[in-house]
């Protein structure tokens, strides 16, 4: 959804490493909201491209494909590059209320073009592009969150705690080689806040995540280096190794819990 990493939430959750979006031809009226667009409120309007079910999402997460353009027709982000977007609407509403509204109001199975004024994109995130945006939103389905581990709220006694305060448990052991901080890693993961609410996961997207290990939160950089290729660990990441006590999204406050599966890794210079 964004220009950062692989998903809308991961740009906040993990890192700030940018990837160029595949360019897609913008709507002919990308520069200005057309007169025939249906206005939800000033600066937020849509046109139906392909009608859907008529039923909007009711569950916490929405799977969608979203292409975003600036008003000069440049493709800012393209979810087709990265698998399905998975959005927790209440989290997105904290940083991009206009986009959250667009996804929430687009019925399942429907495709709409949305014109979103910059005021509806605030407060934004740390590398958010400026200006108004035009979005093509295709809602695929809604989804309930993945159930949290029973020990999500408290680090279990059998967990290993490092000097930094990172705690972990080995779910699936591997004696294979381990990555360095400068390597590019490929992972699957699910993340929960300490209250047991899932905030993101790669599994429903159907595509793994690949990123430079030294471009993510400190808890990930330290923790994934402990893993052999093929291993699966559960990490309890304290706020000082994550997003602190005042993160951009409230669900990311305090201790975060991740199940991480390390699929592969390679040296940065090997990245294609």
What can you tell me about this protein's structure?
The chain has 272 residues and is mainly beta. The protein has two domains: 106 residues, Chitinase A, domain 3 (Roll); 107 residues, Chitinase A, domain 3 (Roll). Helix content is 10%, strand content 33%. Strands 1, 2, 3, 4, 5, 6 and 7 form a seven-stranded antiparallel β-sheet that branches. Strands 8, 9, 10, 11, 12, 13 and 14 form a seven-stranded antiparallel β-sheet that branches. Helix 2 packs antiparallel against helix 3. The longest helix has 9 residues.
Keyword list:
Chitinase A, domain 3, PPIase_dom_sf, disordered N terminus, elongated, signal, isomerase, seven-stranded antiparallel sheet, PPIase_FKBP_dom, 272 residues
How do the strands and helices of this protein lay out in sequence?
Blueprint: H1 10-13, E1 38-41, E2 44-50, E3 61-70, E4 75-78, E5 85-88, H2 89-95, H3 97-105, E6 111-116, E7 133-143, E8 160-161, E9 167-172, E10 184-193, E11 198-201, E12 209-212, H4 218-224, E13 232-237, E14 256-266
Antiparallel strand pairs: 1-2, 2-6, 3-4, 3-5, 3-7, 6-7, 8-9, 9-13, 10-11, 10-12, 10-14, 13-14
Helix pairs in contact: 2-3
């Amino acid at each position: 959804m964004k220009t950062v990493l692989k998903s809308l939430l991961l740009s906040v959750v993990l890192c700030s490493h940018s990837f160029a979006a595949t360019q897609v031809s913008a709507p002919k009226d990308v520069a200005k909201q057309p007169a025939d667009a249906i206005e939800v409120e000033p600066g937020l309007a849509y046109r139906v491209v392909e009608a859907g079910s008529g039923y909007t999402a009711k569950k916490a997460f929405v799977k969608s494909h979203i292409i975003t353009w600036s008003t000069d027709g440049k493709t800012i982000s393209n979810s087709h590059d990265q698998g399905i977007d998975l959005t927790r609407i209440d989290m997105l509403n904290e940083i991009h209320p206009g986009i959250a509204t667009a996804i929430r109001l687009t019925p399942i199975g429907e495709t709409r073009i949305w014109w979103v004024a910059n005021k509806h994109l605030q407060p934004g995130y740390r590398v958010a592009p400026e200006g108004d945006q035009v979005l093509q939103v295709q809602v695929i389905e809604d989804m309930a969150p993945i159930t949290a581990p029973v020990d999500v709220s408290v680090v279990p006694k059998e967990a290993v705690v490092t000097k930094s305060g990172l705690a972990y448990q080995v779910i699936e052991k591997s004696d294979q080689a381990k990555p360095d901080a400068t390597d590019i890693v490929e992972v699957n993961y699910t993340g929960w806040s300490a209250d047991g609410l899932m905030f993101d996961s790669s599994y429903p997207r159907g595509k793994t995540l690949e990123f430079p290990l030294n471009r993510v939160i400190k808890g990930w950089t330290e923790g994934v280096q402990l893993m052999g290729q093929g291993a699966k660990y559960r990490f309890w990441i304290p706020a000082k190794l994550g997003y602190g006590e005042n993160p951009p999204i409230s669900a990311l406050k305090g201790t975060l819990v991740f199940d991480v599966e390390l699929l592969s890794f390679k040296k940065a210079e090997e990245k294609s």
